[in-house]
Design brief:
EmrE-like; disordered N terminus; transmembrane; AA-Vitamin_Transporters; 75% helix; mainly alpha
């Protein structure tokens, strides 16, 4: 079996330190990805004003896949190698299908501020998933910080939910797991093919499922055309689902998962700002305080 095979590759996402100019570009690209992702929940909330949850999920994925497929055809990109298909399937199930579906279902009853704090654990979950995937053994301090961050979010979730976890919380925690797996595999694949092709092929792989599902959802779920609904749909399809992931995977490939995860620390706080500005949501001091607590925990894991 070849040493570069995904079945035998036990190395970290980024082993050697990137050159200064590559690090600067990679950091800028990853930061653009974080900015795009921070708008995902408010845009989803806007989209739900005009579309049902299944319509929003399937149409956004199908629309993003059509754009990605057009780009792949226009640039005459060769199909991915067979050894990459397993990793692309993980990206597709986690990032293209799993995370959008679970978070959209959660946002039917959860506020974007609440969801942002819970999903603030994503960099931490990704770091843990990466450690398990690569076979590395992080330090005890890493695991203590990881557990502390999880406890902080779990406590916030239980308190905000009135003493018990809700169905929306279950969707959000499941979304964390599937997205972390997709990020980990996407970061690994982005070392071997351009980042935009990783998400592009993952979207195209899902098109035979998402396109008929979108047609079915549109025929069964009522919808109404509104400015917020269309703007939300276009953003989650093109900004979050495609362009955001293009720059995120390229940046992650350039600077590595740990460095990219540090930039993602700002995402929950940015989403809190957007939820207040775009949706007029009001939240207690517990939300930003918990987000900062998680930020500190993730910073400790990155330095462990």
């Amino acid at each position: 079996m070849k040493t570069q095979s995904s079945a035998t590759d036990a190395g970290p996402i980024a082993v050697t330190a990137p050159r200064p100019e590559r690090r600067t570009l990679g950091t800028a690209l990853a930061a653009l990805g974080v900015a795009a992702f921070s708008l995902t929940f408010p845009a989803t909330a806007w989209g739900l004003e005009g579309f049902g949850p299944w319509t929003l999920v399937t149409v956004r994925s199908a629309l993003a896949a059509l754009v990605a497929g057009g780009a792949l055809l226009a640039l005459k990109v060769r199909p991915p190698e067979r050894r990459h298909l397993r990793g692309l399937a993980v990206v597709a199930l986690g990032v293209v299908l799993g995370f959008p579906t679970l978070t959209t279902l959660a946002l039917r009853t959860s506020t974007t501020a609440h969801a942002a704090v819970v999903v603030g654990l994503l960099p931490l979950t990704t770091a843990v998933c990466s450690a398990l995937r690569t076979g590395h053994r992080p330090s005890r301090r890493f695991w203590l910080a990881a557990v502390a961050g999880a406890v902080a979010v779990l406590t916030f979730t239980v308190v905000q939910s009135g003493g018990a976890l809700t169905a929306a919380d279950g969707y959000l925690f499941a979304a964390l797991l599937v997205c972390a797996a997709g990020y980990t595999e996407g970061g690994r694949l982005a070392r071997e093919m351009p980042g935009w092709q990783v998400i592009g092929w993952a979207l195209v792989l899902c098109l035979p499922l998402t396109l008929p599902a979108a047609a079915l959802a549109l025929s069964y779920e009522p919808y109404r055309v509104t400015a917020h609904g269309i703007a939300g749909l276009l953003w989650v399809a093109l900004g979050s689902q495609f362009l955001g992931l293009v720059v995120w995977y390229r940046g992650m490939a350039a600077i590595g998962v740990p460095r990219a995860s540090q930039l993602q620390l700002a995402q929950p706080l940015l989403t809190l700002v957007w939820s207040a500005l775009l949706l007029g949501e009001h939240f207690t001091a517990a939300a930003p305080l918990t987000a900062v607590a998680v930020l500190v925990c993730i910073a400790v894991t990155q330095r462990s």
